[in-house]
Amino acid sequence: MVTMLKKYKKFLPLYLMFLPGAVYLIINNYIPMAGLVVAFKKYDVRKGIWESAWNGLSNFRFLFMTSDAWVITRNTIMYNLAFIVINTVVGITFAIFICDTLSKKLKKVYQSAVLFPYLMSSVIVGYIVYAFLSHSTGIVNNSILPALGLEAVNWYSESGYWPYILIFVNTWKSIGYGCLIYISTINGIDASMYEAAMLDGASKWKQIRYITLPSLTPTVITLTLLNIGRIFYSDFGLFYQVPRNSGMLYSTTNVIDTYVYRGLMEQSNVGMSAAAGFYQSVVGFILVLVANLVVRKVSEENALF
Amino acid sequence: MREKPFSKFQILANGVMLLVTLVVILPFLLLLMSSITDENVLVANGYSFFPAKFSLDSYRYIIQSGAKILRAYGVSILVTICGTLLNVSLSALMAYPLTVKNLPGRKIMMFFVFFTMLFNGGIVPSYIMWSSTIGIKDTIWAQLLPGLLVNAWNIMMIRTYFQTSIPDSLYEAARIDGASEFRIFGTIVIPLGKPILVTMGTFAGLAYWNDWTNGLYYIVRDKGLYNVQNLLNQMITNIQYLVQSSNSNVSSAAANIPSTGIQMAIAFVAILPIMLIFPTFQKYYAKGITMGGVKG
Is A268 part of any domain? Predict the structure, then answer.
């Protein structure tokens, strides 16, 4: 008993170190997990989550009766799929280009350039996009379209353009992230493989095809699977700030995250919002687990667990 | 080294990347240009890379009569500094015990941290808890606490670094010498772990500087607690309100909207700190991405 106590006394400082952060995680992460039950309740602000009355599945029934459920699910998944494909293809292309530049200095310049927009807040990105697309003052309507002899477009009320705009903006903003990972993988490729290939007279394209791309495959598979694990989540800022929360664009810009936000903050429709949030959390959790199981099969060291 | 002339491929690669660099830089240039364009010209001709008339009025306005704007910068700076320091210290304090192999319960503690990466309650319960249960609304804590203070990813990254880059023998020697765990933490772990702490600090700092959602959710009445991003966001909201409601009750909203030039100037000053420290901190940031990117 005494030795037991002594043993724990020795470890006590370590537990104390862990404690403050742990308390935070309980408050910030664990309590809201339990709070997910609000999806099955008729939420009453005065009573709070725990005291509010249960109402079974009716929040979900209301959610899935509307066409919203389908639209936000479709948008969330389709955008994420597009982002995965484009960020992979463009990211690898840029990474290969950057690794074969004329000088070390240029390589640094290009690397910084692709990373820079990634550091911007979505509010700023929204402002920048607005400078291009604003109906009366935007540079696209004022300078670019007239130069091409085209009519001005009311960008913030024409939903059809937004899949292209959002995909472009997302690539512009976040291409640096994957690109840097691919660059570090390419830097890790044994240089002698390229030397041998060149001695054999392999063209640049053949070197890429038979050395670079195969070396990148594990990274690509892992990144893709992990992104599929997060396919039910989207960058709230991108879908809220860049379309400027414009109601006319919802059919192509509303994703689960923006839907949950609007239900909660703008329409005070906590029930439906909570149901959509629950749907996202649970399906998202299952997808993360499945994606990780697959990653573990493909390349164990990259699996989360 | 290289004796051969540049290959066709290199010329193509550089051509494309040069173009990409332009596509990255030009939008920021447009932001800067519109912040120094004369307001009348801006309204008449729209945004332009080559404004017909320059004016520094927007920046003059920010300095002279922009108490609200300067205050928002103050909030941004204060919250970013406190948040970053707290984030890094709390994460390091959590990460170190997780590296002590014979610590009873270590596996459970690991899982406790890790599980938050897999599953989360989402914004609805979080919002209800922070705003109703804890009552954080319209306090400065709202900018500091929800979501950003500690996250599992930072802890895992720091733990991995402590484990792989600080030799076990150092800890053991210190323990044999009778050093307390706090002493080991302060004299070995922190000094030797500096690279990872700086790296994680850049992530935390950027997250705080760029955050606008906490203000969106929790700063409702006391607009004095807005940070720069909230201020910028509010200007858009007010404009949307003007555009969407055609009734006459909008004059108060209209009065709160600074001119486009001023908005662009605020936006530009909001990214200025990032631009200024980018050369120094980008290598840490990039390192963080490549170290944990696949997992991030």
Answer: yes
